[in-house]
Amino acid sequence: MESAESATHCPYCALQCATVLSGRRAELAVRPAPDFPVNAGGLCQKGWTAPGVLRAPDRLLTPLVRRPDGELAPAGWEEALDLVAGRLREIRGRHGADAVAVFGGGGLTNEKAYALGKFARLALGTSQIDYNGRFCMSSAAAAATAAFGLDRGLPFPVTDLDESDVVLLAGANPAETMPPLLRHLRRADLVVVDPRRTRTAQQAALHLQPAPGTDLALALGLLHLTVTEGLLDKEYVDARTTGFDAAWEQCVAWWPERVEQVTGVPVADQRAAVRMLAGAARAHVLTGRGAEQHSKGADTVAAFINLALALGLPGRAGSGFGTLTGQGNGQGGREMGQKADQLPGYRSLTDPAARAHVARVWGVEAERLPGPGRSAYELLDALGTESGPRALLVFGSNPVVSAPRAAHVASRLSALDLLVVADFVPSETAALADVVLPVAQWAEEEGTMTSLEGRVLRRRAHLRPPPGVRTDLEVLRSLAVRLGQDADRFPARPREVFEELRRATAGGVADYSGISYERLDAGEALHWPCPAGEDGADDGGVDGRGAEAGSGPDTNAEDRAASPDTGAESGADGPDAGAQGTGRRGRRPHPGTPRVFLDRFAHPDGRARFAAVDHRPPAEVPDAAFPLYGTTGRVLAQYQSGAQTRRVPELVAAAPEAVVEIHPDTARRFGLADGQLAEVTSAHGTVRARVRATRDVRADTVFVPFHYPGAARANLFTGDALDPRSRMPEFKVSAVRVTPADGGP
Ligand code: SF4
Question: What atom in ligand 1 is closest to the CA of residue 47?
Answer without folding.
Answer: 6
